[in-house]
Design goal:
This protein is mainly α. The protein has a single domain, classed as Alpha Horseshoe (Serine Threonine Protein Phosphatase 5, Tetratricopeptide repeat). 51% of the residues lie in helices and 0% in strands. It has 9 helices and no strands. Helix 2 packs parallel to helix 4, helix 7 runs parallel beside helix 9 and helix 8 packs across helix 9. The longest helix has 11 residues.
């Protein structure tokens, strides 16, 4: 697969999301950066906001139309909720579920957000698992 020589420029929105920088994300969206583009790790900007535990940035991206179930199926990528289920911020998992995240989309090694959360034994993991177990599809 050829290397995209413009990858660094193309992933500016991903980096702004990883930093939780809403003003920069606002400028980049206005400059036509794509909200739901996958990077080489199969992450969208929303994945990075979640990974960085930037609740307000994740909420802002969702308000702008970020795909709550973004999943790069060609690369067996994870959903944003699957990333959240591995983190330490249950409120982000709750936000995603309220916005329509599906905890049963398979990702890497056929793992889902639900299966990842249920395997955890720490307090945040238990909270995330409880939120996911209470999930009822719309």
């Amino acid at each position: 697969m050829p290397i995209d020589e413009n990858w660094f420029e193309n992933e500016r929105l991903h980096r702004a999301a990883a930093d939780g920088d809403i003003p920069e994300m606002r400028l980049l969206l206005a400059a036509a950066f794509k909200l739901n583009d996958f990077d080489y790790l199969s992450f969208t900007p929303l994945h990075y906001a979640i990974k960085g535990e930037h609740y307000k940035a994740a909420e802002w991206l969702l308000d702008q139309g970020a795909d709550v179930n973004a999943n790069d199926q060609n690369k067996i990528g994870e959903t944003p909720l699957s990333v959240a289920s591995q983190g330490d911020y249950p409120e982000i998992a709750e936000l995603l579920l309220k916005r329509g995240a599906d905890p049963d989309v398979p990702g890497w090694m056929a793992q889902t957000a639900r299966s990842r959360a249920l395997r955890r034994k720490d307090e945040d993991g238990k909270k995330i698992a409880a939120l996911i177990q209470a999930f009822r599809p719309r």
